[in-house]
Design goal:
Blueprint lengths: L2 E5 L2 H9 L4 E5 L2 E7 L6 E2 L2 E3 L5 E5 L8 E5 L2 E2 L9 H6 L4 E2 L26 E12 L5 H9 L4 H4 L8 H4 L4 H13 L9 E11 L2 H8 L1
Parallel strand pairs: 1-7
Antiparallel strand pairs: 2-11, 3-6, 4-5, 5-6, 7-10, 8-9, 10-11
Helix pairs in contact: 3-6
Length: about 220
């Protein structure tokens, strides 16, 4: 078991907070040389079968079953507040979070990208309960729903992705909706490429990773 950081965008942070996101999919990054195909199926240990190539390429799966992930998101420390308002500062738990929105958004001098969030400022912790390697388009309806939709209409969850009225997207399956989301994040045609991905399932815990550890102890 290891503690690792993981980045999420503001819409995905809101889904984590709302309890509608319990899975995430990340692209696999191949490394090393091709190896002859010696295994049955399409996945064994740390190897995947390459597109159009009957050989195996070693890949790196950094997150393992049981790992604890501390979530990084766009944030600002208390010092970024443009005016000294004790009442506002009392509402902040060590900093401000862009995903929360609200009136404080216009009063922050500078938001810091999620990559720069230190461990102590993280407010969400994920514990990995399942790790699967699969093709992106192998996602099931239930898994697509667990990516952020939570049984809700996609436009209500991600208005920046699903524009227009309900009739425009009402005929789409959850997997198709997730495909549109994937293209929105990774660029046009990314879903159609059907790459190898790692699908992580996790439980969401509201609290800093070190605070959760203290409670558990």
């Amino acid at each position: 078991m290891a503690d690792r950081p993981i980045l999420f965008s503001a819409p995905m942070i809101r889904a984590l907070l709302a309890g509608t996101k319990t899975q995430t999919r990340r692209l696999i990054k191949p490394r090393g040389k091709h190896r002859p195909s010696l295994f049955d199926g399409t996945w064994s240990d740390s190897y995947v079968l390459d597109h159009g190539n009957e050989s195996w390429r070693q890949v790196d799966i950094p997150i393992k079953l049981g790992d604890r992930l501390w979530v990084r998101e766009t944030w600002a420390p208390l010092s970024a507040l443009t005016h000294n308002d004790p009442g506002v500062q009392a509402l902040a738990d060590g900093g401000f979070y862009r995903a929360d929105g609200g009136t404080v958004d216009g009063e922050i001098s500078k938001w810091l990208p999620s990559i720069f969030m230190p461990r102590h400022a993280s407010r969400l912790t994920l514990i990995v309960t399942d790790v699967r390697v699969e093709r992106l388009q192998d996602i099931s309806e239930a898994d697509a729903d667990a990516e952020c939709f939570g049984g809700n209409y996609p436009g209500d969850v991600l208005p920046e992705v699903f524009h227009g009225d309900r009739e425009q997207y009402g005929h789409l399956s959850m997997a198709q909706c997730y495909g549109r989301l994937w293209n929105h994040i990774n660029g046009a045609g990314a879903w159609e490429e059907n790459p190898w991905i790692v699908a992580y399932t996790f439980t969401v815990h509201h609290g800093n990773i070190d605070q959760i550890a203290q409670v558990a102890a």
